[in-house]
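Reviewer comment 2.1 asked that we show a complete input and output for one of the modelled complexes. We chose the glutamic acid case, as it is the one discussed in the main text.
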Amino acid sequence: MRKKVLSVLLAGVMSMMLAACGDKSPVEVPEAAAPAETTAAEAGTGEVAGAQKEEAASYPEDVQAVIDRGVLRVGVKNAVIGFGYEDPLTGEYSGLEIELARDLAARLGVDVEFTAVTAATRTELLDSGDIDCVLATFTITDARKESWDFTTPYYTDYVSVLVEDAKGIKSLSDLTDATVGVSSGSTSAKSLVKAMIEQGLISSDGFDEESFDPATWTEGVKFQQYDDYPTISTALSAGEVDAFCVDKSILAIYKTEGRSYIDAEFAPQNYGIATTKGSGMSEVAEQLITERLADGTIGKLITENGLD
Ligand code: GLU
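Response of the prediction step:
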């Protein structure tokens, strides 16, 4: 993708050079500007490209506001390799969700600005208007659909559990009476309890999908909630929790030597782009995902990012 952006840039530079040399052949104008990129921390210093606004097209108010601003602000993960990952040395973002965010910004002809979010902060930032959409391993659920719009899923992951080998925990049945670290605002605790109920490891008495609260659940397994994943990983090393439960894609970076996944993957997690309910951005995002699923781009990005 970076190569693609570079080649668009290069094509632009070559066109300008040809024009400067007085070449009479028609000069090709690249269709979309190569969008500039900033992170939220650098906001205000990035150059606004916004040169390719479609003058005739009329957009819903919220989309027009993004176009006028010249920047699409996207909430992404920064430590989920293959989805949203920020290189600590270069500050460069990469991954499937990053490419989709760039694609979304490019079709509006604006720059993209990434804000690193967590499961706990992503909806607050969307609701407050600090970001325009969320592309952050955000699982589509019926309950969440009541508060936000989600696109058609672009990826399906599963929940799993990471443990320190020394603990000897190998399967869901070894997790009975364990304390499990989960992120606040995530689907993880409920998914684990459901999987344990389905395997007959714990009783379903008192389990209610709608009112389930990890903070008060004590039937067969307990939860400790944290604001972010590095803190859960530290808690796992320190023995503060017996296990770390979340989507496998997120666990990958914390699976260091001496740690293993238990022998269970459960609760399919369909990831979608989340936007403000009823907003014009919801339509733009949906259009992007349906098109990119149909033209094979998402399939290609999944392979390129090692996610299949
Ligand atoms: N994908 C899960 C969720 O949306 C795990 C949390 C996360 O994405 O960080 O709840």
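The radius of gyration is 22 Å. We note this here for comparison with the apo prediction described in Section 3.2.
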